[in-house]
Design goal:
The structure holds two protein chains of two kinds.
Chain A (H helix, E strand, L loop, with lengths): L16 H40 L2 H16 L1 H16 L3 H31 L1 H16 L2 H12 L3 H25 L3 H9 L4 H35 L7 H10 L3 H24 L14 H9 L11 H6 L1
Chain B lengths: L5 E10 L3 H10 L4 H8 L2 E11 L4 E5 L6 H8 L7 E6 L2 E2 L5 H11 E4 L11 H5 L1 H5 L4 H14 L15 H13 L5 E5 L7 H18 L2 E6 L2 H7 L2 E6 L2 E6 L1 H6 L4 H7 L10 H4 L11 H6 L2 E2 L5 H9 L5 E5 L2 E6 L1 H9 L5
The chains are: A mainly alpha, B alpha/beta.
Chain lengths: 320, 349
């Protein structure tokens, strides 16, 4: 018979983490539920706005808008990929579910950017903040989403808004990390030069560090989007609508067809959002050039309002 | 004479925790660099450096890597805070300036050029040049006009809309120079600006810089590890070793009268022809057998400021000794033998 003793000290008692957590949460729910409910409000508004916009607009118009936007960002090929993927979603009959998922993912992205970029900047500027944040970020990324699904439901209830919150918890970490990394990777000599020419801390941040960290920050945005999409199915367990719901229902009813259609929709969405967020990073950043290309450039030229400032050819510059 | 534009007074910089205890040991008890490192884990960057630079002078600080010269120049615009000592720029102690005053000083009064150029890669050439004025809040149109002027000055007119990665190394550094001069500061700090360039381009830029310096007349502190460069550009040269200045003087002083073996080693390879004057090598008239007045009259004459180079040309055309005259009075004599010794740098007494 095993007894409490030096050989098996674990029988002598245990730390009741389980009870503590449950008690703590109950206390939080009892005392602060109104606070958490009020946090829901603005998120709900944004989400409703997106949902109305995407579901009320006729699909053809929406696909055209997305296509033109993609064209502006990354050229005709990207536009075709984006429009094609969206048309495919419509054709297989999941348009409405797709649009709901888009609005949830975009709301989560917006919230992540709002939280993630400032935190990332803070982490880059303060080693202490970074040290505190690092384990928390590790935790947010590794703790299984199911673990915090329950407390979120207890505090926020069920539905799309708690779904957005769960998604943000899971997806914001890479944005914080990559913003921090991007700013820390700005060459020291550039920072020194900025200081040497009289930059204040704010000017240093906005005129040098953030612009130079932009590729890294955009990679973070991209990662956050991808992780948001991977949360779609899990979030549907707390009654989040959209494509995730289809997959979940498919699993529940052993309906392979339904699950496949929902899954295909998620993949299509992933392709669309991934390509669109990556398009910007590859583009040459000459100021003004952005508006000279794509549909906007075309329209400007057509109406004769193009102010194409042709840069002097290399030879002309050299002889000057 | 007016007060110096840059005035450094017993400046110390010690890196590491416990810098003040290390400072005490180094300053008051004369502990050496190695000693300080072993006892306190601190590294001496700058040790008891004092110098002053009058308006319009090009002051070269020369030393090998690790001698503290780049650390020293960063004290002048307070990119680094000293452990002890003061730096006065146009009469104000930079270490007592408030944040706003310091930013004004950096954007308007002190321009800086860096070894690795440190241009902002996401900005066009013109926006790089206009940086200090932008940070100071000057409207866009105005600062672009001034920046374009400076680009003309470094012969890069028309490159306004290019990005730094489209430029060659030499061009980038010219942009760096234009940026430093953009706000018309009185002081230029140049931290090995030409060291990263290949020798031919370096030479070109040195010439261009000398041309510019004649026109714009800025008080310049020029950091270099290349004694040739220091001699070409500097009105005066300070030689640094282990954070200390071992000698300050004109190029001629440094070459003809090195303060110690360390400096002597440096100048050993320097050609003296274009540096040393007749006054330095001549012997008193009495040392040779007494010359008759006739002989003195017949001898070719030079002034004390004439360089060895010219003396060689004269010596080739005559067999007589050369007489050095100051005004009308003969003050010294240079025989072929003294001339050769002078070129070699042998100081025979």
């Amino acid at each position: 018979m095993a007894d409490c003793g030096i050989l098996n000290p674990f029988l002598c008692g245990e730390i009741p983490i389980q009870e503590w957590t449950a008690d703590g949460l109950r206390w939080l729910v009892d005392n602060y539920r109104p606070f958490f409910q009020s946090v829901k409000q603005p998120i709900d508004q944004v989400l409703q706005g997106f949902a109305v916009l995407f579901t009320a607009t006729p699909p053809t118009v929406l696909i055209a808008v997305f296509g033109l936007f993609a064209w502006q960002l990354g050229g005709v090929r990207l536009a075709l990929v984006v429009a094609g993927s969206l048309v495919f979603c419509g054709v297989i009959g999941i348009w409405d579910a797709t649009m709901i998922t888009v609005s949830i993912v975009l709301t989560a992205l917006g919230l992540s950017i709002l939280i993630g970029i400032p935190l990332g900047i803070w982490a880059a500027r303060s080693d202490r903040a970074f040290k505190v944040m690092q384990p928390i970020l590790d935790g947010m990324q590794t703790i299984p989403a199911f673990v915090y699904l329950v407390p979120v439901v207890m505090l926020f209830g069920i539905g799309n808004v708690p779904g957005v919150i769960v998604t943000v918890i899971f997806a914001v970490a890479p944005l914080i990390r990559l913003t921090n990394l991007g700013i820390r990777q700005v060459p020291g000599d550039v920072v020194e030069a900025m200081r040497a020419f009289g930059a204040s801390e704010r000017q240093l941040l906005w005129k040098a560090q953030v612009p130079l960290a932009m590729p890294s920050i955009m990679a973070g945005v991209n990662q956050t989007l991808m992780m948001s999409l991977s949360m779609v199915v899990i979030a549907s367990m707390i009654a989040v609508g959209g494509l995730g719901q289809m997959v979940l229902r498919g699993i529940g009813r052993l309906d392979v067809g339904l699950a496949t259609v929902g899954g295909l929709g998620i993949v299509m969405l992933a392709i669309v959002l991934d390509r669109m967020t990556q398009a910007r990073s590859g583009i040459r950043r000459r100021p003004g050039d952005f508006w000279q290309q794509g549909p906007v450039g075309l329209a400007l030229r057509a109406t004769g309002r193009s102010s194409v400032r042709r840069r002097p050819a290399k030879e002309a510059g050299r002889s000057a | 004479m007016s007060e110096p534009v840059i005035d450094c007074r017993s400046l110390w910089k010690i890196f590491g925790a416990g810098e003040h205890r290390a400072l005490e040991a180094a300053r008051d008890r004369g502990a050496g660099k190695q000693d300080i490192f072993e006892r306190f884990g601190c590294v001496i960057g700058v040790a008891d450096v004092s110098f002053s630079v009058p308006a319009g002078e090009i002051f070269c600080v020369m030393g090998l890597s690790g001698s503290g010269k780049s650390t020293l120049v960063r004290h002048l615009n307070r990119l680094i805070e000293p452990t002890a000592g003061e730096v006065y720029i146009s009469g104000r102690d930079v270490n007592r300036l408030g944040p706003a005053e310091l930013r004004k000083l950096r954007s308007k009064e002190v321009g800086m050029v860096f070894q690795n150029m440190a241009l902002l890669p996401h900005r066009t050439v013109i926006d790089n040049v206009a940086l200090s004025m932008e940070l100071d809040g000057m409207p866009r149109k105005e600062r672009h006009r001034l920046a374009a002027e400076k680009l003309e000055l470094v012969e890069l007119g028309g490159w306004d809309d290019r990005y730094p990665d489209e430029l060659s190394g030499g061009m980038k550094q010219r942009v760096g120079l234009a940026r430093a001069m953009a706000a018309d500061p009185d002081i230029l700090l140049m931290d090995e600006p030409f060291s990263a360039l290949d020798p031919l381009i370096r030479r070109q830029l040195q010439d261009q810089f000398l041309e510019l310096a004649k026109v714009v007349k800025k008080t310049t502190v020029f950091i270099t590890h290349d004694l040739d460069e220091a001699i070409r550009l500097g009105d005066r040269i300070a030689i640094m070793k282990d954070g200390r200045i071992v000698q300050i003087g004109t190029p001629e002083d440094i070459v003809t009268a090195p303060a110690d073996d360390y400096v002597a080693d440096f100048v050993a390879g320097i050609s003296r022809l274009a540096l040393v004057t007749a006054a330095k090598v001549m012997k008193p008239l009495e040392t040779e057998r007494a010359l008759t007045q006739q002989e003195i009259d017949a001898a070719p004459k030079v002034s004390p400021d004439d360089l060895l180079d010219e003396l060689v040309t004269i010596a080739c055309e005559t067999d007589r000794p050369i007489v050095v005259v100051d005004g009308a009075a003969a003050i010294g004599i240079i025989t072929k033998r003294t001339l050769l010794q002078g070129i070699q740098g042998v100081n025979e007494t």
